[in-house]
User: Which sequence fits this backbone?
């Protein structure tokens, strides 16, 4: 149990019997009223994002989340296949298969040999924790349109299907770093 003064981004809390990850939070005191905590939360299983305002007085129950370091192996068209990081024997049965629904929006950032943490709730995979940025290959760039004339940026489709705005110097085949929090171009690699 934690108090509202110990709140921080990334914590996993139980609210109304459901597990949520704290994306953002803020202490709010309105006039002479009691203090509240305004939370922006992501449901661990459904990945739905909600906002809640709760009393700051009661303590919040922490949900124990296990982190398992894994490496992305491949996608077979239906399931994403991961292996535990550090497992050297390819014949071990430690392959973990997850559907795209479990990964949510994170599936757009998962590239070959990406190392990340698999999040487990009661030994059940509920999602992944991506690194802050990922290096991806550009598949194609739209070279015309109003984007290029107004901002000197245009949409580029990456190897996973993700579309990001990139500067005019980026060409198909280039490798770029993408921020996994907001999906924005960071730099050419």
Assistant:
């Amino acid at each position: 149990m934690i108090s509202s003064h110990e709140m921080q981004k990334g914590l996993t809390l139980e609210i109304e019997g459901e597990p949520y990850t704290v994306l953002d939070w803020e202490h709010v005191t309105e006039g002479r009223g009691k203090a509240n905590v305004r939370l922006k939360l992501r449901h661990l299983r459904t990945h739905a994002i909600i906002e809640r305002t709760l009393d700051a007085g009661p303590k919040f129950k922490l949900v124990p989340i296990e982190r398992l370091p894994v490496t992305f192996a491949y996608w077979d068209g239906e399931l994403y296949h991961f292996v535990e990081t550090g497992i050297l024997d390819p014949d071990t049965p430690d392959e973990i298969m997850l559907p795209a629904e479990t990964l949510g929006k994170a599936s757009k950032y998962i590239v070959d040999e990406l190392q990340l943490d698999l999040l487990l709730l009661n030994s059940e995979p509920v999602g992944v924790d991506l690194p802050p940025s990922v290096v991806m290959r550009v598949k194609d760039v739209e070279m015309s349109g109003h984007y290029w004339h107004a901002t000197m940026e245009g949409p580029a489709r990456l190897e996973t299907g993700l579309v990001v705005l990139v500067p005019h110097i980026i060409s198909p085949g280039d490798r770029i770093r993408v921020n996994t929090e907001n999906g924005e171009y960071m730099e050419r690699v």
